Amino acid sequence: MGTILVTGSLGQIGTELVPLLVKKFGPSRVIASDVKPPDSDVFHDIEYITMDVTDREMVASTMKDRSITDVFHMAGILSALGERNPELAFMVNSVGTFNVLNSAVKAGVNRVMIPSTIGVFGKDTPRDNVPVVTVTRPATMYGVTKVNAELLASYFRNKFGLDVRGVRYPGIVSYKTPPSAGTTDYAVDMYYHAVAGKSYECYLKEDAALPMMYMPDALDSLMKLYSADGEKLRYTIEYNISAFSFDPATLASAIRRVIPEFRVTYRPDYRQSIAETWPRSLDSTDAKIDWGFSPAYDIDAMTEDMIENLKEMHVRNQPGL
Ligand SMILES: NC(=O)c1ccc[n+]([C@@H]2O[C@H](COP(=O)([O-])OP(=O)(O)OC[C@H]3O[C@@H](n4cnc5c(N)ncnc54)[C@H](O)[C@@H]3O)[C@@H](O)[C@H]2O)c1
Known about the structure:
This protein is an alpha/beta fold.
């Protein structure tokens, strides 16, 4: 066992993944990186490097010079930001992923983990219970770059024998680091508003159902796949996983079971048209069969946990308390 490099460590997933890897493998085995310098209150006990995944030389020299054996490639530009800046999405998601895979082969890296997304689907994909192998003709630049990443991952596995693994994440709900600019961010925003005693104006329609998952299950799934028997894996980074599906009205009702006065209004914007090209639900059977995917949280368990933790953070952040 050697050293694990995490790209995009300061993101919604990276900030929770890095401490998990440190706990599991020890601080000397994990190097965190991101294009930004670290916030003052994260990652004290491990090495941190500022690394832009679009910088081919830097990615290559980092992997080689530090004898990296495993990479968790979490750097990315998500759907809503990608629509505002398609060139950036292409550079980070497509070119950056190529740089990571290409450098990994050259540096003799053992395993690369790369999340894909439900953003690879498009309006020609069936809307319900979508299987792994289906039509992937997305309408967004995010989707285009993520289909490209899926194809690159399979190419590098088949051509060079690189062990590349990953899942198509649905929308991920979490309380530690706010999501950056995805289409499913409304779910996290709703909890923040509800706990702060505010009403919420939702940018998706009340019946815009999408597949979703709570962060502990997202991390647990990634780690299960990471340590799965490679012989049993039929896919590269295309494993569909989803814990449940809900629309904004259903989430609002779940929150009202804990905070009855919470109110939501709806004013759909451009993100509604992105959501309309994505499936309502996924078939995660292949992930269950091949590596034991089994989410623990349903929408009510997630809601209780989110509200409890956000209330605690709210109290901690009140001056004088
Ligand atoms: N969060 C979700 O709901 C979700 C759903 C599906 C898939 N995913 C996938 O999971 C991965 C991580 O997502 P996230 O939610 O943590 O995203 P995020 O936007 O919260 O974090 C991404 C991180 O990448 C960093 N980054 C951007 N450009 C970079 C560059 N050029 N070089 C290095 N780092 C750079 C950003 O600074 C940020 O810290 C992405 O590949 C994303 O497509 C996330």
